[in-house]
Amino acid sequence: MDHKAPMYYDFLGIPGLNFNLSTVLMIFISSVVVFVICTLATRKLQMKPTGVQNFMEWIVDFVKGIIGDTMDWKTGKVFLPLGLTLITYIFISNILGVITMVTYGEYLWWKSPTSDAGVTLSLAAMVIILTNFYGIKLHGFKNYGKEYMKPVPFLLPIKILEEFTNTMTLGFRLFGNIFAGEILLTLIAKLAFVLAPVTFVGALIPMMAWQGFSLFIGAIQAFIFTMLTMVYMSHKVSTDH
After folding, report:
1. How many domains, in total, are found in the chain?
2. In-domain check, residue 2
3. Domain limits at 156?
């Protein structure tokens, strides 16, 4: 069965300004899942953490390590909430479509929101905007602008173009990996019903194997996105890179 993209909603009736309703739904669900996990992890804090709190503290230490590898901790500690938000939200978003896919009628509603290029490029654009914002905030507009003129002024157009290429590569890398994984899972699911139950049994093992691999890819992509965010940030806020 072919899955069609859900209908698009024209925001305020403005032509061209429309939203994929399934993507909006999955963004909301991802946000709720992350909120619930973080709330459970911090609801009853203990000196000797166990369960979800222990796992969350491990994530905090992991993100601290990412920041420490890219910049001085005195400068980078302010970006810890950003790193935690990115790595948890992107990981949850990546695996939602791996766990299952839900269709209603002919439309695919349950999927990974990061399998939509609009979501990943928006995340990437916000990251690049934040890096420039903090660069200006810490160094001042004049001093920050001088960095675009080094080592020679004629590199200015290239450095401006680099901001756009960083956005594209950061967004499309995440989108490509998650979208390709969902496509393969869909193909395996279709194969399972070609000559059911014979093909269903034959497709079960590849399906489980690819779901496991996709969980790994989802974690790796969340790590890469967060790491590159901190690398880009360090280039803007650190005096020595």
Report:
1. 1
2. no
3. 8-237
3 is a domain residue: no
- Alpha-carbon distance of 21 to 208, in angstroms, equals 29
Position 97 scores a pLDDT of: 84
Contacts by residues 77-83 (CB-CB < 8 Å, ≥ 24 positions apart): 79/134, 79/230, 79/233, 82/130, 82/229, 83/226, 83/229, 83/230
Q: Which residue is it, tokens 């691999």?
A: 213
Which stretches in the chain have pLDDT values below 70? Answer: 1-17, 101-106, 192-203, 239-241
Rounded Cα distance between 110 and 173, Å, is 22
Please count the CA atoms within 13 angstroms of the CA of 188 that sit on its side-chain side.
20
Q: What is the pLDDT of residue 196?
A: 64
d(CA 74, CA 87): 21
Q: Provide the sign of the torsion angle of the four alpha carbons 186, 188, 193, 195, taken in this order.
A: positive
Q: Is residue 127 part of a domain?
A: yes
1 within a domain of the structure (yes/no): no
